[in-house]
Amino acid sequence: MHIKNRLKSRHVLILLLFASLLVYTIADFKTSHNIVGRIAADRSVVHFALLLILSILCAYYIYTCIFIKIHALSISRFYRFKYYSNITIWLWSIAIWVMFVNIVRDSISWISLVHLGLCFLWILTYHFFKTYLLRFPESMHLIKYFILIMFIFYSFASFYALFSLSSLYYRITQVNVAYNVLVFLPWLALLQNQKLKLSTFTIVFFVVSSSMKRGAILVFPLMIITHLFTSSLMHRKFLKNFFKTLLLFILFIITLYLANMLTDGFLMDRFSKEQISTGSGRAYLYEVSLETILNRSLFDFLIGTGSGSSIEHLGTGVHNEWLEFLYSFGLAGAVLYAAFILSLAHQLYHLIASSSFYAPSYAMALVFMFVVGMYGGIYFVHSTFYLISFYATVDALVCIDISNQSIVNANCSKFTRMVTSK
After folding, report:
1. Alpha-carbon gap, residue 282 to 152, rounded angstroms
2. Largest alpha-carbon pair distance within the chain?
3. What is the pLDDT of residue 415?
4. Taken in order 120, 121, 126, 131, is the CA torsion positive or negative?
5. Which of 336, 320, 422 is nearest to 374 (CA)?
């Protein structure tokens, strides 16, 4: 009984964090324009929940840095296994640069505060999930349950949005919540229960197929193909995974064909030459933003014009994360963002090289982040929380695996010495 109570008290903080995230998600669901179609709704509960989440993560960060001596940039006592991650360094670099540019540009606005808040949220999130799991490996089952709950919630939200928005506007609508569901796919790929994994993948399949979002429809099969290709690369099962990919592709095409029939050709119209060439106005945004960037002075080109400057000039964001960083935070900001993506790719390389179980899932997350960032926002989007926490969780799990293997090897060596001495 004493041990059970001790385990429960250990996990009060993570349970409080999950409860706050759930409150945020429900409040966001009730007031979101993308789900229920409400415009100018009172989102004070959403903002309060975000503040509570930041407060919990910040309190944990300060506690671990001061009292447990886990340093912000290098969790040294866990790197004795020769597994080093520099992701935190680039998260800090981006946050400091965003703050610097906004101070120089005197860009103190709601958007700049949101950008700064999200930059520091990613730092705190990465720190929390990595160090908490390293300190309490048994908490992984809590994380899995929470991820499944949130996945089910967003899947329900996606189908609810599909019917509620169609009823509200009396037409077929595009469901942006599909991206909130897709972001869980790398997490779901970690499930070892094959029936549960297949069930969750099937739900994602139908969410994406019914969303009418071109980007989601393209990135979903890319993530699946990446998972199978990475697995083939590690285990040399190219033929088997080729047939799997072919079968999934055929099923996906059939489902899209049926969705197109049910919508009287609306889905295929979204993929018409005219629609793709304009990209819902993206081609114009890219042209204007590039022209503006190239006509800047050297100083403006290097540091950018601050958070929200693209919205002021274009009336909306650039809808390309690379161009957004280049526009708002200059060449230096774009380089820092590229360094962050490369650090993730570096981690993936080591996972593949060591034939890690986590490599295919990690590859899926990286493909999602890179591809979606080519036609939309990713770094300053709330759902990126689940990507950052995923990267941190995988890093922690790899460290734990290496630690356990080191203990096994040490015990084997000890046993061998004992046997040979006799």
Report:
1. 32
2. 84
3. 38
4. positive
5. 320
**Token pair for 330:** 């200059």
Residue bearing tokens 């190219």:
238
Q: Which pLDDT does position 411 carry in this prediction?
A: 46
Q: Which two tokens stand for residue 20?
A: 């706050």
Closest CA to 168 of 39, 1, 348: 39
Nearest CA among 387, 411, 395 for reference residue 121: 387
Residue 371 CB burial class (10 angstroms; 0-12, 13-18, ≥19): middle
**Cβ neighbours around 234 below 10 Å, total:** 17
Burial 3-26 (b: 16+ CB within 10 A, else e): eeeeeeeeeebbeebbebbebbbe
Cα separation, 101 vs 97, in Å, equals 6
**How long is the chain?**
422
Q: What pLDDT band is residue 43 in, cutting at 50, 70 and 90?
A: confident
Is pTM beyond 0.90? Reply is no
d(CA 381, CA 387): 11
Chain segment 88-126, per-residue pLDDT in tens: 999 999 999 999 999 998 877 788 888 999 999 999 999
The pair of structure tokens assigned to 314 is 């274009």
Structure tokens at 281: 């106005």
| Full DSSP string of 162-210 | HHHHHHHHTS----THHHHHHTTHHHHTT---HHHHHHHHHHHHHHHHH
Token match 């995988």: residue? 394
Instruction: Let me know if 348 is exposed, middle or buried by CB neighbors in 10 A (0-12, 13-18, 19+).
Output: buried
Identify the DSSP state of 358. T
Residues of 76-104 as b/e, b for ≥16 C-beta within 10 angstroms? eebeeeebebebbebbbbbbebbbebbee
Whether residue 141 has pLDDT greater than 90: yes
The gap from C-alpha 96 to its chain's centroid, in whole angstroms, comes to 21
Residue 192 to residue 134: CA distance in whole angstroms: 21
Classify residue 392 by its DSSP letter: H
The amino acid at residue 97 is W
d(CA 48, CA 298): 41
Positive or negative: CA dihedral 9, 10, 11, 12: positive
Residues 302, 330: Cα–Cα separation, whole Å: 5
Residue 11 has what pLDDT?
86
